[in-house]
């Protein structure tokens, strides 16, 4: 078993999940993350951290998103590991124009 980042991550990429991962299984794409199934230890720490509920055990991936399982496997071999959080692609709680670091 492994855990899988599903389509809900696309365009969000909050990266809260990365912060709690003990094994560096996340890889970063321009619009989302994926999990390397050979590195994931199924600790489930990341699951409750995702604001959009994008992460599932492979056996619990929602119907219609089964392609995510293979996509995580292949894309994790092609994109770099991410170990630190990034600025999310969407920031629904922040007013426009207030996203610059001082
Ligand atoms: Fe994506 Fe959720 Fe992580 S939106 S980057 S799976 S916290």
Notes on the structure:
The chain is mostly loops. It has one domain: Alpha-Beta Plaits. 14% of the residues lie in helices and 12% in strands. It has two helices and four strands. The strands form two sheets. Strands 1-4 form a two-stranded antiparallel ribbon. It has a two-stranded antiparallel sheet with strand order 2-3. Strand 2 and strand 3 form a beta hairpin. It is globular. The mean pLDDT is 93. The site of FE3-S4 cluster (F3S) has 14 residues, from helix 1.
Q: Given this structure, which CATH class is correct? A: Alpha Beta
Secondary-structure element string? EHEEEH
What oligomeric arrangement do these chains adopt? Answer: single chain
Q: What name is given to the CATH topology?
A: Alpha-Beta Plaits
Mean pLDDT: 93
- What would the principal axes of the Cα set say about the shape? globular
Topology overview:
Elements: E1 3-5, H1 16-20, E2 26-28, E3 33-35, E4 55-57, H2 67-75
Antiparallel strand pairs: 1-4, 2-3
Bound molecules: FE3-S4 cluster.
Key features of this structure:
4 strands, 2 helices, 14% helix, two-stranded antiparallel sheet, two-stranded antiparallel ribbon, Alpha-Beta Plaits, little secondary structure, 12% strand, binds FE3-S4 cluster, 102 residues
Provide a quick synopsis of the model.
By secondary structure, the chain is largely without helices or strands. It has helices at about 15-20, 65-75; strands spanning about 5, 25-30, 35, 55. The protein is globular and about 40 Å long.
């Amino acid at each position: 078993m492994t855990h899988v980042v599903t389509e809900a991550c696309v365009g969000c990429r909050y990266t809260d999940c990365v912060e709690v991962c003990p094994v560096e299984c996340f890889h970063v794409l321009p619009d989302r993350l994926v999990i390397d199934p050979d590195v994931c230890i199924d600790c489930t720490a990341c699951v409750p951290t995702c604001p959009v509920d994008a992460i599932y055990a492979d056996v619990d991936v929602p119907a219609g998103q089964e392609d995510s399982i293979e996509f995580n496997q292949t894309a994790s071999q092609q994109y770099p590991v991410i170990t630190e959080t990034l600025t999310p692609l969407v920031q629904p709680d922040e007013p426009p124009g207030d996203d610059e670091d001082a």
